[in-house]
Known about the structure:
With about 350 residues, chain B is of the alpha/beta class. In chain B, about 35% of the residues lie in helices and about 30% in strands. By secondary structure, chain C is an all-alpha fold.
Amino acid sequence: MKRYFRLHRIFVVQYLKRLMEYKVDFLLGAIGLVIAQAIQILFIGIIFSQIPKLQGWSFEEILFIYGFSLIPKSVDHLFFDNLWMVGYRIIRKGEFDKYLTRPINSLYHVLVENFCVDAFGEMLTCILLLGYAIPRLSLPFHWYTIPLLLVVVVFATMIYTALKIMTSAISFWTKQSGHITHMLYMTNDFSKYPVSIYNKAVQAIITYVIPFAFTAYFPASYFLTDSDPLFCIGGTVIAGTVLMTIALFVWHRGVNAYESAGS
Amino acid sequence: MENMIYVENLRKEFKKIIKEPGFKGSVKALFKPNKEIVKAVDGISFNVPKGEILGFIGPNGAGKSTVIKMLTGILMPTSGKCVINGQIPQENRKNYVKEIGVVFGQRTQLWWDLALRETYSVLKEIYDVPDEKYKQRMEFLNEVLELESFITSPVRTLSLGQRMRADIAASLLHSPKVLFLDEPTIGLDVVVKENIRNAIKKINEEEGTTVILTTHDLSDIELLCNRIVMIDKGKKVFDGEIAALKRNFGNVRTFAFELVNAADFGKLDYRMQYRLSDDDITVERDKNSVTIKFNADKVNIEDIIAYTLSKVHITDMQVKDVDIEDIIKRLYLKGVDV
Amino acid sequence: MSRVKRFFRTYTPFTRSGMQELIAYRANFICFFLGEIISAFIMYFVWKAVFLSSDSDTFMGFTMEDMTVYLFIVFLTGYMTYSDGAFAVGEEIIDGSIAIRMIRPCSFEMCFLFKEIGNRIISIALIFVPMVLGVEVYRYAVTGEVRFNLMYFGFYIVSTVIAYMISFYFNVIYGFMAFFFKNLWGTSLIKETVVGFLSGGTIPLAFLPAGLATVLNFLPFASLAYTPVMIYMGMYSIGEIFGYMALQVFWLLVMMGLSKLVWHSAVKHLSIQGG
């Protein structure tokens, strides 16, 4: 375990060295993500210029949920972005061979090999949104609010990462699965708004099938209203644990089915 | 001697979707994909004693890389068994790969954007090499593979030859007991090839590393290996020393000479004289030089020379021993049935 | 006549290969599309909530039915007019293989164009037709009358084709920027978000402050999606339709001219750098 932490540090250091070499590209990526979020927020602003509340939620509350959704998303984006490459390229080109000839866990190796500082664009937006919304909302605060928030961030990130692990592991059988990851990953956008605005089918899907609702709306609504912690927080913990268990299982099976490339 | 590698009846099957060519083919594949099982490796057995360099050869698509990938734990065999260094590669992969080194000539294992030295320091951690040992090892590898001149350059800027040396060094950093080299000389020029062969030889001699080498370059085989395993269409077609290959697969010898008078060539007809089929003799002529390759089991070298001298005047002549390249070329062309 | 024939004989194989490529990678293609269309559905639900929370039946002049048609048709138009030329050109510039293009006897951008046309032909069958049908069925279900207007639809098709051509040349120009930015990912993210917004992809331009909306209407970005969609919805009079389509043609000519210019300077740049 200690060795894995040391390895992690070494990969981060190497990544930062590389980052210095390509800093303009990374900066542009981060700016792109800030602009993308800013346009969405402008959209919310235009809506609220015409109506006082959206199905009972105020402007600040909506911004809080939106900002909250960016926490696990950006954490996953920052640390576990290399999974996209697994589904799009690494397996198809046979580059996965390398990971299997190393004496460390292949999933761990793939995960720590790359980071994506573009995610700081999302983090910045997240901080700005929460920084704007929180002082304008009277959020309930207990001694356990901060620890609980940390727990939620860990398990909500696990939901994101587990879905990416699962879908990129499909490429062990199909050679390429980046598009499947893309399809499922995009549903995370549903979690930026209160689930009550969706119809029953969509609600059921984002709660029980692809449980992105637990990465933002449910925990965020608990922190806003202090109600139903068992479902809102417990659900996040359960969803994260279950998905990660399935993901690790699928990955393990996938590695055994790996066919490499070429002759 | 004890066996380092033990392979028994190893098989690997792949499912393959056959697509007919053209637009119609793609439409058809849309509705009814045509699946077929391909036997990439079809029951191969062999052993490698500790400290041996084994040449693993065969035509393209014979299944060489598939075997190597099973031996290195990358692929799961469909059936059969391999035990290397007392371990089954797929069973405890993480533990197993600590003691092996792998180089795929077509693909680098180094980090593209990192300076070469950084790559080694990351690998040091991955393989958990102690500081003192690492220092010694780098000195040794530096001496054998001459890394000094480019060790501070990013991997992406290295030439192919440098990259290959760097890759081989990377695979040896943790002092593996077995080294797998898949096409380590592919695309390299003669000087670099020589350099790499010497390094492999040296490591094998000094550390007793067992080496499995696949290659298309037969000089690699002749210079490095005492023994070869040849496979074709997933099956083993030959296993033994190079001398035995020469004995078993046609004793081809070469007789070359220069004619004084090029027009004399018409007087020579070896096929008629000795009743040889096309498989047993080939005659090539370029102006005054004539090269004859023949099966020494069917006809004596003395007879050929005597016959030639009785018919024509020659200025220079040369007799060459069995050429492994020729044997293998002939086997590839004919396809082997065993 | 024979020149025209030869032109098509040279480039139709690219169209065929574009079609084959899409069929071969159909699963990727459909998954990708489904991932993209999610954003339109989210917008739909958000707007539905907005209309439910509002006292009036209209939002800045749009009914919920208008809004829905707008959302899906603007998505569809953006999707159909999206061009990958930027990456195709950019990658070739970065890895140097563009040098080979210059010694081939066919036009560089025409190869891409005809390949993309092949892609589009399949997309029309798999995506365009079902989506337009879906939108019209929805309109019929909500209003109880057929709102489909063949004339507007005809103008919409013409306008969308021009929009695609603008997008194609715009992206070719952008692809040449790879000379200056080594990596296209960051800048193309910026490009896509900004272009998406300026062409009305997120919000109808009419919802923006009046002055800004007027300016945006005349920029080339509105020509990419907003103009065809407004035509489809019957928001423009015949006079306006011709006016805006003339504007589209103007921007198309500008983009074509610019792409020639960029191509020539790129060739010069390449011969200096040596590819």
